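assembly run, all chains below
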Amino acid sequence: MLAIYKRELKAYFQSMVGCVFVAFLVAFTGIYFTAYNLNAGYPYFSYTLSGSLIVFIVGIPLVSMRSFAEERRNKTDQMLLTAPVSLTKVVLGKYFAMVTVVAIPNLIFCLFPLIIKMNGTAYLKVDYISIAVFFLLGCVYVAIGMFMSALTESQIIAFISTFGVLLALYLWNGIIGFLPSSAVACMIGLILILSLIVLYIYHMTENWMLGAVLEVIAVAGCAIAYIVKSSLFENLLSKLLGKLALADVFTDITNSHIVDITGIMLYLSVIIVFVFLTIQAIQKRRWS
Amino acid sequence: MIEVKNLVKKYGNHLAVDHLDFRLEPGKIYGFLGPNGAGKSTTMNIMTGYLGATEGAVLIDGHDILKEPEEAKKHIGYLPELPPLYTDMTVQEYLEFAAELKRIPKGERESAIEEVMKLTKLMDVQMRLIKNLSKGYRQRVGLAQAILGFPDIIILDEPTVGLDPKQIVEIRELIRNLSKKHTVVLSSHILAEVREVCDYILIISKGKLVASDTPENLEKRMNGTEGLEIEAKAAPEKIRSILSLVDDIAKLEIDIQKDGIARAKIETKNGADIREQVFFAFAGEKCPLLEMKASKASLEEIFMELTQGEEVYRDAGDL
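ok done. output:
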């Protein structure tokens, strides 16, 4: 795992992708910093950081796109998968290398609150917590990007699809607003979502019996719950899907200085889920 | 030791490997021979744990490659069809990475890398980026990676592709030396190479094992159809009448050449040696015999018969 981690990290800085990512993120944050904190005199660096979020959405796919797509195209994955290293370690080695690349600009960000402090009052606690959560959000995005990269051979497709998903997550609250709120519509929506999950499980396991049983349980469960207490379903979709607005946890800190521990748990869970899905996607390819 | 048990691999509804079953003993060089698309690479990819099998199992020194992958993979060095090279690394860096990946202890890494670089003649290019190397050198870097740490089993998929004739001879020599301590499995579609290097040949066609034996035995197996080719200065009818005196002739084919010379192909019954009788028969008739040679089925013919003949009566390629 260490061998893969070291090689990956080196490759990021040899191929310039790592340098470009760090420079890009620090430069844009520097511009926001000059505008908000230095010129306008606003003492919170966390606010500046929330402006950098959009830069993250462009930058992260740049880092994650090559992780598995490039290996697969160059057939170097044959070396990794036939070496006496488990697949989990290969994936984790690559993931931690990317996390390290994302950590570098965040370490540089740690200097900015000190600059504010040199010039007057600074709110170091809020600022540093926001940097830490910003970094954690980066780790979530990287895990999603890695999964996308494991699905394709083309780095371009990995980039575009990751960018699309991250942009959708960024605009999530706006998209949620279009969802219907009536109980019936929400029930149908829920069945649709559950069916998609069942379809994915069927695709992975190719066991139609399991798929059919799960589908029946999902549909029957929703229908029974609706008959027993239909008010349960009102606004359910937007409530449920609203939880996926990942950036909200971060913007809560930057805008209203609220640290939501459940949000942090959500981040960690999403990371674990996508690392797991990456491993499964690669395993699946070996067998088909 | 490698045991392949009832191996099946399906891509959609295409059958790439069709119930392969064989055992490879240590200390020998095995050659996988087959036309393009016969399933050689797929079999090797499954044996090394890169691909999963639809059915069956591969045991490497008693460890199932799918159930105990880490333990089994420790015993294998693999050079795939396309050498898996990180082109933005130097040869030295790449081999260091490979050594670490193969868990060679830190103290031994340097000497292990130097040894394989000497064996594959890479010392001159060790500081160069792999992307700047020629195909032959890249192939050698891939080979160096495969034999690094000297695993018990070395699997090479078409190891001499892209090398010049001198390098091919060197690599063959290297493979022969390796076989003293290791099991070597190599694949090729070039017959001469397999016959030259391998102790044992496995001929694969359309995912099936159609023959497996030593090169000598494979040639011997075709002895039933052994025959004789003669060239004589006589009319075909005369040759026919002379040869009617000789026993044990199963089949006779005569081609007329120019200047009154005819060429006859004789197949004998049960591989009997009739050269003397033919000579005296022609001598007795005072008919000049210009040429006589025993025709033996070559490995090429065996290969053609085993891999092409298949197509005529059975198509195993599709389900």
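Chain B touches chain A at residues 11, 45, 48-52, 69-71, 73-74, 76, 78, 80, 82, 84-89, 97-98, 100-103, 145 (CB under 8 Å).

The longest helix of chain B spans residues 299-313.

not gonna interpret more than that til we talk
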